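User: Predict structure, ligand FE3-S4 cluster.
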Amino acid sequence: MKSKNLYIETFGCQMNVNDSERIVSMLADAGYSPDPVLKKADMILLNTCSVRGGAEERVYNRLENLRVLKKANRRLVIGVGGCVAQHEGELLLEKFPWVDLVFGTHNLHLLPDMVKAAEQGQRRSETSFIDNDQRLELFPAVQESSRVSRFVTIMQGCDNFCSYCIVPFVRGREVSRRSDEIREEVRLLAESGVKEIVLLGQNVNSYGLNTPDQPSFAGLIRQLAEIEGIRRIRFTTSHPKDMSDELIACFSDIPKVCGQIQLPAQSGSNAVLKRMNRGYTRESYLDRIRALKSARPGIVITGDMIVGFPGETEEDFEQTMALIEEVRYADVYSFVYSPRPGTRAAEFPEEITREQKQERLERLLKVVRRITLEINSSFTGTIQSILVEGLGKRPGQVSGRADSGKTVNFIGSPDLIGSFVDVRIVAAYQNSLAGEII
Ligand code: SAH
Ligand code: SF4
Ligand code: F3S
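Assistant: Predicted complex:
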């Protein structure tokens, strides 16, 4: 059978990236192989994100653009999955008559059947939630891999209901995957040559908390660290309120756990944190940061911040700026607050103008950029063990990552891809480091 071309475009977070990988491996059986050329596609799938208004708009613009392709080729199958699909469901079929299938975040396993139906001209939308751990095992793990670093989903959903956030509504309740299944997936990845795993979840720190027969997150990490061939373990995202001492101890006891953590604060002001329903204070957040820094000196910390949350005063914002200086984040993913329909904060009165939000964001970014460069520069002259992941930006270069997660480019043979190389850092830039093999 001639294989058909699948064009898949992924928006949003690593969850979606991982889901897209699963979709690709799942649809291989239905005769589809991925092809990055849109015009050649027999099927186009958009795996979508609705975390902010802008993310959703990008999806709608893309969908508008696809209309002409469908006109030119009636046999083209167009599908929408992910968080916008989960939120909008059948409405998408109504609004976009050229869309054939809509699948929610819990319905990936239905895709092969839905695709078959779509090939025969049927239009379907499936967005029901399945709130048990079976859905996590319903689709196969990605087994083939040419890459050295892979994501491994360990949980889905979120129960935190931060007042601004749509994720709990589009990903459903928090469910931890069984640890034996995770171990098996990681073992298979290690056998196929993977050296690094990145454990994924909206709030990995609370892994296992709802499931008494499963280990805690720290317990899971300890189990995975025993798997031969896996040399590095990272995870994302952590929630400060669930950052246990047991987990922090992993940074001092387990060399395979990389010296890097993303620990979003979202705001430095207690008043704002309370309205955000984050479940911690500025003080308890800083206490966790101190514990992390003493468990793993030099640990590279990144975070997320929301600017212009309803009611954020100039003083509140100053507290965020002071927190950034105190923590010294290696990077901060910062976002202007965007009200999401259905969330609690969407009902809070908004007094801050668009210009004020933008002005605060720019002030924040300026400070973040300065600290990032200072931290990057502090690596100059050090020797770092780099896991080479691919070709570098310039000809003759390869690129990989240090334990800290920093990207390092250096002159080297492509044969090095997949191995660890000791490199001296010779220059630091805003987004990467340059090195020389020693
Ligand atoms: N589960 C992760 C990530 C959630 S979404 C966590 O809790 O950290 C990624 C980031 O998007 C969040 O950390 C937050 O900074 C931002 N975000 C979420 N909802 C938002 C909104 N309504 N407006 C602006 N930024 C938002
Ligand atoms: Fe959203 Fe909060 Fe859950 Fe993160 S922890 S996904 S910000 S509700
Ligand atoms: Fe976006 Fe959904 Fe991830 S809303 S950030 S793709 S969980």
